[in-house]
Amino acid sequence: FCLIFIFLCSFYVESKWTRKHKIYRDVQKISTKEKKNVLFIVADDLRTSLHCYGDQIVKSPNIDQLASKSAVFQNAFAQQAVCAPSRTSFLTSRRPDTTKLYDFGSYWRVHAGNYSTLPQYFKENGYITMSVGKVFHPGISSNHTDDYPYSWSIPPYHPSAEKYENAKTCRGSDGKLHANLVCPVAVSQVPEGTLPDIQSTEEAIWLLKAAKEKGSPFFLAVGYHKPHIPLRYPQEFLKLYPLEEVTLAPDPEIPEGLPAVAYNPWTDIRKREDVKALNISFPYGPIPKDFQLLIRQSYFAAVSYLDSQVGQLLDNLDKLGLAKNTVVVFTSDHGWSLGEHGEWAKYSNFDVATGVPLMFYVPNITAPFPQPGKRTFPFIDPFDHVPGKIPPGKGLVSSIVVELVDLFPTIAELAGLNVPPPCPKTSFDIQLCTEGISIVDLFNASSDVEAIAYSQYPRPADHPQWNSDLPHLRDIRIMGYSIRSCDYRYTVWVEFNPLNYTANFLNVYAGELYLLETDPNQDNNLYNHTEFVNLIKEFL
Ligand SMILES: *[C@@H]1O[C@H](CO)[C@@H](O)[C@H](O)[C@H]1NC(C)=O
Ligand SMILES: *[C@@H]1O[C@H](CO)[C@@H](O)[C@H](O)[C@H]1NC(C)=O
Ligand SMILES: *[C@@H]1O[C@H](CO)[C@@H](O)[C@H](O)[C@H]1NC(C)=O
Ligand SMILES: *[C@@H]1O[C@H](CO)[C@@H](O)[C@H](O)[C@H]1NC(C)=O
Ligand SMILES: *[C@@H]1O[C@H](CO)[C@@H](O)[C@H](O)[C@H]1NC(C)=O
Ligand SMILES: *[C@@H]1O[C@H](CO)[C@@H](O)[C@H](O)[C@H]1NC(C)=O
Ligand SMILES: *[C@@H]1O[C@H](CO)[C@@H](O)[C@H](O)[C@H]1NC(C)=O
């Protein structure tokens, strides 16, 4: 109770969008003498459904192995739970209210400010910077070039098989090909006989070899497409998840106290042929339970497929002798709701949508230096793997709340570059600064570190409609600002003006308060609860 009081106060009165950490510096300073390489792996729409995050169903042995040698952050959150805004935010280390990019329709350099990016910073510090797959969100949000040449030394690589992702390549029960949501495929039978993430792994391995030969430090970003929809993956991964072992979300119903404005009506999955055929009513559904199980099964299978790609990549990094001087970062742009609160997809402020895996492997810091003749990241075949063989949390594990805006300063510090300065209050004219902090000191920090993460999500109206999931900037009328501490999530949905980007905290459409100790899934909204209501009113 006391903690809530303090945080609400600091949220509204003291420092709306700046974060206060009480950091107890109990970790030795990481050696910054030698420039380290960076392998930055970003998955698409991957929530924390990984064995190393305590998931009992998902098989992710290669990411678990990475986690066992990394600093793992169990409470890491994206700033906005949708691809382009989140990626632009963490790659520039600025919050969506600074990038002013809440949709997919603009390029921050012309729309907001000419902000430097994480790869650009490495490029300007003598690194070869390379992009494979989906790192920046493609299209206008990165000027149709993935921000090349500012961010990258060579033109970004995109897998040629990507163009078939939304084509009719999924074999339906009628024997015909469809553009389905659930899409296990025989890889030899799809166009080009391969899948985008397989191609990205091949390209990334080739670039690692080339960069090693060149001898200069490198920053290689590899953006995998899975488990983003369609859930299109090699069909053998289904064998890891017999349908009888797949369960529904723990809370598949829409909670009574969920404000209509907070609900995302999952319009994107409704467009897929297999979902369309179910005639699900808009906006609340529900999806039939047997189909819910199929979606969950295929999401998990797509995660295991992703895990195998990460495993191949790390296996090769290791074989090339690069595990001794390369920092490996693994994360995702945001999470995905798999039926929790009756919701699917991202597009919300709940933990399932904003929460991401986040881990940093730093040789000689999070794991001992690789020993001669010993492998650091041998590929683990998920079909041979005995679950639980790699104990979760053998590396450093931190439950401190951190944010994706922290990535930029953290990776800079780990590689041995200067940490960019903190952004001042108004920073539109400043090219290089961070709205996050370096979390290197939190790798091993004591549990008395207090921290909060901010996320936000826009809506066009206070009830779900066709464009509620992803409104265009001009249609935004409401912004849901959300804070997540170690013990609660608090969200207010307030009036927002898209012409001057201004939120009016005096006009509140709805609020949400969830206490995580008794309600970790965030189903029991206490916003109107008498014991909190007066307290909250004081700050509005
Ligand atoms: C983390 O803390 C443990 C236990 O206090 C200590 O043994 C270890 O050396 C610390 N690691 C780092 C990187 O500071
Ligand atoms: C924006 O930043 C880039 C890279 O730092 C620089 O080359 C360019 O000149 C800048 N553009 C403007 C208009 O300031
Ligand atoms: C965006 O791309 C166009 C076309 O390639 C180019 O002319 C323009 O200068 C780019 N914008 C910026 C800010 O670099
Ligand atoms: C909270 O109270 C407001 C105003 O009385 C009401 O409109 C809203 O439906 C209530 N919300 C919940 C979750 O009970
Ligand atoms: C969905 O609606 C179509 C057309 O109204 C109908 O032909 C089809 O049988 C319905 N499917 C289901 C699963 O109810
Ligand atoms: C590895 O870490 C140890 C302390 O844990 C330090 O004494 C040593 O200098 C480090 N080696 C290198 C090459 O940084
Ligand atoms: C933004 O526009 C609204 C509506 O015109 C106005 O009420 C508000 O004062 C403006 N805010 C700022 C900061 O200019």
Automatic annotation (TrEMBL):
<comment type="subunit">
    <text>Monomer. The 58-kDa mature form is composed of two chains resulting from proteolitic processing, the 42-kDa chain and the 14-kDa chain that remain stably associated and form the 58-kDa intermediate form which is enzymatically active.</text>
</comment>
<feature type="domain" description="Sulfatase N-terminal">
    <location>
        <begin position="36"/>
        <end position="416"/>
    </location>
</feature>
<dbReference type="InterPro" id="IPR024607">
    <property type="entry name" value="Sulfatase_CS"/>
</dbReference>
<comment type="function">
    <text>Lysosomal enzyme involved in the degradation pathway of dermatan sulfate and heparan sulfate.</text>
</comment>
<dbReference type="GO" id="GO:0043202">
    <property type="term" value="C:lysosomal lumen"/>
</dbReference>
<keyword id="KW-0479">Metal-binding</keyword>
<feature type="signal peptide">
    <location>
        <begin position="1"/>
        <end position="15"/>
    </location>
</feature>
<keyword id="KW-0325">Glycoprotein</keyword>
<dbReference type="GO" id="GO:0004423">
    <property type="term" value="F:iduronate-2-sulfatase activity"/>
</dbReference>
<dbReference type="InterPro" id="IPR000917">
    <property type="entry name" value="Sulfatase_N"/>
</dbReference>
<dbReference type="InterPro" id="IPR017850">
    <property type="entry name" value="Alkaline_phosphatase_core_sf"/>
</dbReference>
<keyword id="KW-0458">Lysosome</keyword>
<dbReference type="InterPro" id="IPR035874">
    <property type="entry name" value="IDS"/>
</dbReference>
<keyword id="KW-0378">Hydrolase</keyword>
<keyword id="KW-0865">Zymogen</keyword>
<keyword id="KW-0106">Calcium</keyword>
<keyword id="KW-1015">Disulfide bond</keyword>
<dbReference type="Pfam" id="PF00884">
    <property type="entry name" value="Sulfatase"/>
</dbReference>
<dbReference type="GO" id="GO:0046872">
    <property type="term" value="F:metal ion binding"/>
</dbReference>
<dbReference type="GO" id="GO:1901136">
    <property type="term" value="P:carbohydrate derivative catabolic process"/>
</dbReference>
<keyword id="KW-0732">Signal</keyword>
<protein>
    <recommendedName>
        <fullName>Iduronate 2-sulfatase</fullName>
        <ecNumber>3.1.6.13</ecNumber>
    </recommendedName>
</protein>
<comment type="similarity">
    <text>Belongs to the sulfatase family.</text>
</comment>
